[in-house]
């Protein structure tokens, strides 16, 4: 476990550091009964899918990179299922440095195209994120580039925590926030910001239940990775920072299946004309499928965290 965990001051510092580099993404307060939900629940969506590079990831990537006194000549290096890589490539292009990104063979074509559009040097190989990460770490030892971990880094997590800081300013009376979980960087940042003042609930696909299994086992463990959202939520093991913050401040982690995720994607498009990739729709899937059932009058925030994908997939 990291000796230092992100906290309120670290997230405030991150917010000041990345101000002007990331978008303030909008929230949508749904009308009662929207999406066929029980009218007693009040639901607010945070559309982080409209962030630069199509996901929440630039928050953490910018904070990690801008926290450095100087950057190496080799630039930045990262492993990713796609979204984090796009964020690092966006940061590199913005700052005028090189980026080398390692992605697994399951990377979505739309994400691969976005990486290349940003001018990154892209390496495709390995069955999943864990194998891409191993290749990335070997290359970093050779090149001397600055590693930007997708989730298990204090500065990255503090940057992701600015999402919750922003959401609290926009929707200050939430009781619960639903957060999709892959390696755990986003839920770690959200949990660090709210620190028990708001109920934080993780949502994972059955095929990528890394944090649920870690909490059940009392320690991060390797899990099989599969399913519709594996490219964005398919970390084989929960990060140590996420695990520590989840033990302290995450109320529960619930699981959804691929059909529920696809139904949530379609509902977002049908009702709001908002496109979300499978990982981006996973938190909403918990509400629509009943994996999370709000109490009467409960005010629920849902983070729609990514929109990198092909809308034609919903046809």
Percent of sequence in beta strands: 15-25%
Which parts are unreliable, with pLDDT below 50 for 5 consecutive residues or more? none
Radius of gyration, taken over Cα atoms and rounded to an integer in Å? 18 Å
Task: Give the CATH level 1 class of the largest domain.
Answer: Alpha Beta
Overall 3D shape = globular
What fraction, in percent, of the residue positions are helical? 40-55%
Strand-pairing-aware structural class: alpha/beta
Q: What's the SSE pattern?
A: HEEHEHEHEHEHEHEHHHEHHE
Task: Describe the fold and architecture.
With 315 residues, the protein is α/β, with parallel strands linked by helices. It is built from twelve helices and ten strands. The protein has helices spanning 8-18, 58-66, 83-95, 109-117, 129-143, 154-170, 185-194, 210-217, 230-233, 240-249, 258-272, 278-288, and strands at 27-29, 42-47, 76-79, 99-103, 121-124, 146-147, 176-180, 199-205, 250-256, 299-304. Strands 1-2-10-7-8-9 form a six-stranded mixed β-sheet, sandwiched between helices. The longest helix has 17 residues, at 154-170. The chain is globular and about 55 Å long. The mean pLDDT is 94.
Task: Provide a brief overview of the structure.
The chain is built from twelve helices and ten strands.
